[in-house]
Amino acid sequence: MLICESTRRQIREMKLNDMIDIVERQESMTEFMSMPFIERLDFVIQALYESKQQEKIVRLRHRARLKFPNANINAIYYQDRGLDRNQILNLTSGAFLGEHNCVLFKGPTGSGKTFLACAMANAAAISRGIRALYVRLPDLAQIISNRSVERKKLLRKYSVPSVLIIDEWLTNEINKDAMEFMLDLMDLRNESSSTIFCSLYPSSEWPARLGNCVLGESILDRIVHGMETVFCGNLNMREVQKRGSLRELH
Questions:
Q1: Which of 115, 173, 175, 194 is the most buried (most CB within 10 A)?
Q2: 41 and 118 assigned to the same domain
């Protein structure tokens, strides 16, 4: 099953270079020498499919711009933290994505909210070939205030991903322009995708953080119904990291 040069060129033109590598690896493995052509082809196609899937995951992770791109649920620290392991494992199944529900990671500064959100995006979405995106609310508010940025393009960018992580949610006050944008964004994402929030504050305090206004109520009405809250515990994960007993925040 040696590949001639003209076939190699055609394979490269189709951007299937991995196929050449797979076939050449088979040539060096005796178990493939006596295998019928169709069985050997099955192995080639399966290996090529897995290679393309892995490439897709790498692209999705890069495009997601996660603060912790390599965050892994297997690296989550539970000891003396008050974090519900079963709840985390249930969320990683991705059921909340199918139901288009939101998730809130709540806890004090340093409790590891962002790492958990990134790990969840990797496990429930990106590893399954589902698009995710990360943004800090203060950064998003600053982009919105830039009059040279086209609003429709900005809405499209943040409404399309199946999972959107909004970090530092309502840590600072946001102005009316940002609130109007958030209403449009949540309206587009409502019942079609899932948003993960990282916040210092429970959802019961969000109306006050949004000024107890009708606009704020309209935003929350598109978020809180069916939202699952994960309490990240009171343990300061940065202190744990400094003690050298954990790699979670790396």
A1: 194
A2: no
**pTM for the predicted model, two decimal places:** 0.80
What are the residues whose beta carbons fall under 8 Å from the beta carbon of 106, sequence distance 6 or more?
A: 113, 199, 200, 201, 202, 229, 230, 231, 232
90/196 same-domain check = yes
Question: What is the SS3 assignment for 136?
Answer: strand
Res 16: pLDDT: 75
Between the CA atoms of 22, 28, 34 and 37, what dihedral angle is there, to the nearest 10 degrees?
Answer: 20
The predicted pLDDT at position 114 comes to 97
Are both 71 and 120 inside the same structural domain?
Answer: yes
Residue closest to 227 by CA, chosen among 205, 245, 203: 203
The pLDDT value recorded for residue 2 is 59
Residue of 34, 95, 53 whose CA lies nearest to 228: 95
The helix or strand, by DSSP H or E, that contains position 133, with its residue range, turns out to be: strand 132-136
Q: Distance between CA atoms of 179 and 183, rounded to whole angstroms?
A: 6
Q: What averages of pLDDT result for each successive group of 10 residues across the chain (250 residues)? A: 69 74 75 75 78 86 96 91 92 93 96 96 96 97 91 96 98 94 96 96 96 95 95 88 57
Tokens of 96: 């909340």
DSSP state of 122: I
- Look at residues 218, 56, 242, 236 and name the one whose alpha carbon lies nearest to residue 132: 56
Residues 165, 133: Cα–Cα separation, whole Å? 6
Q: Which domain holds residue 218?
A: 65-242
